[in-house]
Write a structure and sequence with these properties.
Layout lengths: L16 E2 L5 E2 L18 H11 L17 H8 L8 H8 L3 H7 L1 H8 L8 E4 L8 E5 L5 E5 L6 E4 H18 L4 H24 L2 H6 L3 H7 L6 H12 L3 H8 E3 L5 E3 L6 E3 L2 H16 L6 H5 L2 E8 L10 E7 L5 E8 L6 H4 L12 H12 L8 E5 L2 E7 L5 E2 L7 H19 L5 H8 L4 H29 L10
Antiparallel strand pairs: 1-2, 3-6, 4-5, 4-15, 7-8, 9-10, 10-11, 11-12, 12-14, 13-14
């Protein structure tokens, strides 16, 4: 009743009512953009199954290299464009070390090849460089350890198959480097795909919120039956907990007369830079703050910027501009940020060939950060982006309890465990942007996809070994400069 005693008029937006036939009628509400309609129309699982007619799962075994494929050495030289020239020999030297290392630095060349393989056209946020060494441990905001994909320099919206095939091929190469026999190498690729497929099916069956936050770390090993890997993960976790800004600063800085600290030269990996360059990086942190959630700002406001140095990064990124910034709190405790140049994704030139839209990128650092947040359950709380001298950069905590498993150093009985774990993690990462019901419907219950991608992985590993041999020959002939062992 209203205040004047009148009964309110019934409207379509009123409470749920019982119809004259006894059926309960739903409240009639306007459809809201950005939300799914109700009742749900169609079945994503059936749509996924239907895709098998157009792209049979067995088709993923194919690798057809066309005559226009870039020469491996030329591809490496092209990927060095825009990098700091004096550092590219270090990058080439690292890629020339092993076929697995070559693959790690050749995301663009593999994207060229993948753009000519069968695809379902299901679109997902992909890592773009989901090789077996790009999974690892890092710290969450409460001091715990999370294991997930941890490198997103190449991330784009693209074909989910590209990540899965890159992971599978990298596992074959890593297993070969570890000295495993060919059956184990193929099984690693096969098991990674199987874990991806089974995890996607599991996620498709869960309530959406539960699937979104899966997989709990303490359940990951048992979910993937990776018990032989437990000892290795425990050792890596122990090292990761000690891998902090404080430890890095203790080894890489020295006290100054005013009570602060500054970086110490350790060439070629860490070197001091001119004052003007350091000032430009420090000034860029003001823009970086605008990319963060406002609740993070008081944390950084309690730190002072003390020094900036240049530091070389991993294989694929060598030659890109990368800095470490030393911050100290009121007790002199350090927090180190990494300010790393965000180059255009090596995958973008090949998306159009694959039938995908080429994205318009507002800022490459923003692309990397948002892609990372779309794929991880937990991300670095200080992840952001900025611009230095007109170049885009991403910003993150440096040495945030980071740890990794070297897949090329695993024992044979651990290789398939590691493969299953990484396959499961990749499925969970893709499920944030692609409906797991759709991919699960396509992948199905049997091992047809597992067998096909394993066949592709072995073939592509062979191709990578030939590409690596070509690079080594070019280095020996003096065609390409390389600095080995750095």
């Amino acid at each position: 009743m209203s205040e004047d005693g009148a009964r309110p008029a019934e409207t379509g937006a009123g409470p749920t009512r019982e119809a004259s036939d006894g059926a309960v009628q739903a409240r009639r509400l306007p459809q809201v953009r950005g939300f799914a309609g109700w009742p749900a129309e169609g079945s994503p699982k059936d749509e996924g199954k239907a895709l098998r007619k157009r792209v049979p799962r067995s088709a993923h075994a194919a690798l057809d290299l066309d005559a226009a494929r870039p020469d491996a050495v030329h591809a490496v030289e092209e990927s060095n464009r825009g990098r700091i020239p004096e550092l590219t020999p270090i990058r080439v030297g690292r890629m020339a070390a092993t076929p697995f290392a070559f693959l790690r630095g050749a995301a663009g060349l593999m994207a060229y090849d993948l753009a000519r393989t069968p695809m379902t056209r299901i679109r997902a946020q992909i890592c773009g460089d989901a090789h077996a060494a790009n999974f690892g441990l890092y710290g969450d905001a409460r001091g715990g350890l999370v294991i997930d994909l941890n490198d997103f320099d190449e991330t784009v919206h693209g074909p989910w198959e590209w990540d899965l095939k890159r992971l599978a091929a990298s596992l074959v190469l890593a297993a070969r480097e570890a000295g495993a026999d060919e059956d184990i190498c193929r099984k690693a690729a096969h098991d990674a795909v199987g874990a991806y497929r089974r995890t996607m099916r599991l996620l498709a069956k869960l309530p959406v919120l539960d699937a979104w936050n899966a997989i709990a770390d303490e359940e990951l090993v048992s979910h993937t039956d990776a018990h032989d890997l437990l000892g290795t993960l425990e050792r890596v976790s122990e090292k990761a907990r000690a891998n902090t800004s404080g430890r890095f600063a203790a080894r890489s800085t020295e006290a100054t007369q005013d009570g602060g600290r500054r970086f110490v030269d350790a060439p070629p990996v860490l070197r001091r830079i001119p004052d003007a360059e350091a000032a430009a990086v420090a000034s860029s942190l003001e823009q970086y703050l605008t990319s963060l959630s406002e609740d993070r700002l008081p944390l950084l406001a309690r730190h002072t910027v003390h020094d900036v140095a240049f530091r070389i990064v991993g294989t694929g990124s060598v030659g890109a501009r990368s800095y470490v910034v030393l911050l100290l709190d009121h007790r002199g405790e350090p927090l180190v940020l990494q300010v790393k140049e965000a180059r255009p994704s090596a995958l973008v030139p090949h998306l159009a060939t694959a039938g995908f839209e080429t994205p318009e990128v507002e800022h490459e650092g923003r692309r990397v950060v948002l892609g990372q947040k779309r794929m991880q359950v937990v991300s670095d709380i200080l992840l952001g982006w900025t611009t230095v001298d007109g170049r885009p950069f991403q910003v993150r905590q440096f040495r945030n309890r980071k740890g990794s498993v070297d897949p090329a150093a695993l024992a044979a009985d651990q290789m398939d465990d590691y493969a299953r774990m990484t396959g499961a993690l990749l499925a969970r990462a893709h499920s944030h942007s692609a409906d797991p019901r759709l991919i699960a419907g396509y992948c199905g219950k049997n091992e047809e996809l597992d067998e096909a991608v394993a066949t592709f992985a072995v073939t592509y590993a062979d191709r990578t070994e030939a590409d690596h041999a070509a690079l080594v020959a070019a280095v020996r002939a003096g065609r390409v400069a390389a600095e080995m062992g750095v």
